[in-house]
Amino acid sequence: MEDVYQTIEKESHGFFKDKGSKFYSFAYSVKSEDEVKEILNRLRKEHHSARHHCYAWRLGTEEIAFRANDDGEPSSTAGKPILGQLLSFNVTNTLIVVIRYFGGTLLGVSGLINAYRNAAADALKNAEIKQKTVEKEIILDFTYNELAEVMNVIKHENLTIINTRFEEKCNLAFSVRKSEIDKVTAIFNNIYGVSIRNKPE
């Protein structure tokens, strides 16, 4: 079962210059379109004198959504080459913005594609790319009678606890690697008094 993906760890930058035009690239780790909008708004304010703020992003770990934006450049000369680098480096949950300061000389379609591709690639070359696993959240419901056994399984299977509520009735949420779900579910299903459910999407 394919349950790994690649993403960047933290913000990184790149740069490309051609015929006086300067292309500053910024790569970010993002989890949502809201994060993307916040970053774009911030960059537009910081670089308000730039001619173009072109970008592309990929979001998701199993079903991947993506978008590319030319921000006024000729169609498919900016967003698509940036998106192409996200695909080439095989990263998701990643946004790349390339900001162009016009240098007075037109670059033409092939020149623009080359510039945006190189700027985006430079940001990714400077990034720390990490492989991560697809995790799913599982919720357990049980009583104090089963607590010791439940915690023993959590420890033995090296599961990550997300939150707990130990009252008259106990509730515990943990994350598990996607490929391990069936095995872990079977273990908990064999403990009398424990009910197991997936976190609602």
Structural commentary:
- The structure is a single chain.
- The chain has 2 domains: 4-132, Ribosomal Protein S5, domain 2; 134-198, Alpha-Beta Plaits.
- Helices cover 32% and strands 38% of the residues.
- The protein has helices at residues 33-46, 79-88, 108-125, 144-156, 181-189, and strands at 4-8, 12-18, 21-29, 52-59, 65-69, 94-101, 129-133, 135-143, 160-166, 169-177, 195-198.
- The strands form 3 sheets. It has a 5-stranded antiparallel beta sheet with strand order 2-3-6-4-5, with helices on both faces. Strands 9-10-8-11 form a 4-stranded antiparallel beta sheet. Strands 1-7 form a two-stranded antiparallel ribbon.
- Helix 2 (79-88) packs parallel to helix 3 (108-125).
- The longest helix is centred in the middle third of the chain and has 18 residues, at 108-125.
- The radius of gyration is 23 Å and the shape is elongated.
Please write out the topology.
Layout: E1 4-8, E2 12-18, E3 21-29, H1 33-46, E4 52-59, E5 65-69, H2 79-88, E6 94-101, H3 108-125, E7 129-133, E8 135-143, H4 144-156, E9 160-166, E10 169-177, H5 181-189, E11 195-198
Antiparallel strand pairs: 1-7, 2-3, 3-6, 4-5, 4-6, 8-10, 8-11, 9-10
Helix pairs in contact: 2-3
